[in-house]
Amino acid sequence: MESAFDTRHHYDDELDDIRAALVELGSMVAANIRRAGVVVTEGRLNEVDAVIGADRPINARYHDLEEKVFTILALQQPVASDLRFLVAATRILYEMERSGDLAVNIVKQVRRLDGVPTDLRLDGLVLRLSDASARMFDHAVEAVATMNAAIGIGAEQEDEETDTVTGDLFTAVTERQDAIGLEACVALFYIGRFFERIADHGVNIAQHITFAVTGEFPDGDG
Amino acid sequence: MADRIGTTVDSVDHTRPETLEDASPSLAATRSPRVTGGTPSDEHAVILELSDVNAYYGDFHAVDSVSLPIREKEVTAFIGPSGCGKSTVIRSINRMNDLIPTARIEGAITYHGVDLYAPGVDPVEVRRRIGMVFQKPNPFPKSIYDNVAFGPKISKYSGDMDELVERSLTRAALWDEVKDKLSDSAYALSGGQQQRLCIARAIATSPDVLLMDEPASALDPIATLRIEELMYELKQEYTIVIVTHNMQQAARVSDRTAFFSVDVKEGQRTGRLVEFADTATIFTNPQHDETEDYITGRFG
Ligand SMILES: Nc1ncnc2c1ncn2[C@@H]1O[C@H](COP(=O)(O)OP(=O)(O)OP(=O)(O)O)[C@@H](O)[C@H]1O
Ligand SMILES: [Mg+2]
Fold first, then answer.
1. Which superfamily, per CATH, for A4-214?
2. Where are the domains of chain A?
3. pTM above 0.90, yes or no
4. Most buried residue among A91, A104, A200, B52 by CB atoms closer than 10 A?
5. Does this complex have an ipTM over 0.90?
């Protein structure tokens, strides 16, 4: 079939702008997640404020984009794949904004703890977790950039790495509770949970793209 | 009532109803739970079945091989670009095409299992049971009362005519607005009121199917919403087929949607059915690219 996409140039541009803006927002969040990872794994307490500060433009963009999507929904009355994309976009926005908040929460825990205890860091578990989490999120942003449905379909499985490392980290923290103290234990549980949540948001984002493209959520999640 | 329209063919399949008369009782036997817009239930019995319907105007092949079931007490919407044959198909359902000399239908349209084009089926009776409402309100140049009473009078209705007129106008959501001026000319009504009068007129002959060809396209938004609301009410008792160019309207009022398109070959523009599905599917996840392009407005 020849593509006769002649009638709605302006609308197509609007939708593409939304997609591009989602990728941009996602990239900002991904960068902050990586920065938070470095703060944790390298104990860079002097960068905590930078991570917190970087979340402000993320929030501003989130609100701006949400309003744009809402306006298009109201004015264009989208249907079919356009509607699926815009509904997915509102959800993706939420997932991204939450992920940004989690990066902030992570560095706040590090500051409270005055740096993560070294023996655990040496175990490499925190490093592995922050890496796996950031990679999952990057992959989700890639799904948005390329509108690739396959990433969402494989996301649940891809995320098993994060779940496994989180479990290992929790076990290790529990085993060392006497050495590192209660406060560090609690902070590390939080940090582990936050990275895991970020990866979950990544999974959801990729799955929303699968829905936008195919009309169906990948099995096992909704 | 002198409305028996038996088929006169000798060798009929006796498992099927043979006349529209025989067919009617099955209506009562197939009461099914009411469902509302967008999520139809397969429990609604098929009342009309189009099988391989081809329509011609002289040599011109206007519609190619349309097959689709229409379920009772649902609203079925026909959408598609101009010239794809929506009006032709909807008119074929109550044999309105018979009135166009060049028009010819091939294939079968069954109503309660009776082939509407079988020899011996009286098209006038078909039109009484399958009523039609047109794009432009077309009241007769008579009083409001007489517009509604016209059909029943012709079919020698023997009940209480005042009561029938009131009931029909009430069902068409017009009674309150006209009850004090029933003898006024129908032309004194607004467009939206005239259209509801035409619906009352169609209802007065107790059809069980109402065909509506762009019934709201000449109306303002409020009158349009009234008609839509009315359809919602009417489908509890009637089966409705509506042609509309307003896709939001199809999405709002119908349970199932049929999307037609036009193919151009050898200079002929022939309509065909592209996709038929429940309305929610058509508007959220159509299976054909052509449907997607049309409903998202990307055709050109
Ligand atoms: N009375 C007629 N004589 C000859 N050709 C006709 C007649 N009525 C319709 N046609 C042709 O049949 C084709 C289908 O027409 P039809 O009116 O059914 O389309 P439609 O989908 O209802 O279009 P619209 O949305 O413009 O009302 C068109 O090519 C039309 O020109
Ligand atoms: Mg028409």
1. Phosphate transport system protein phou homolog 2; domain 2 (1.20.58.220)
2. 4-214
3. no
4. A200
5. no
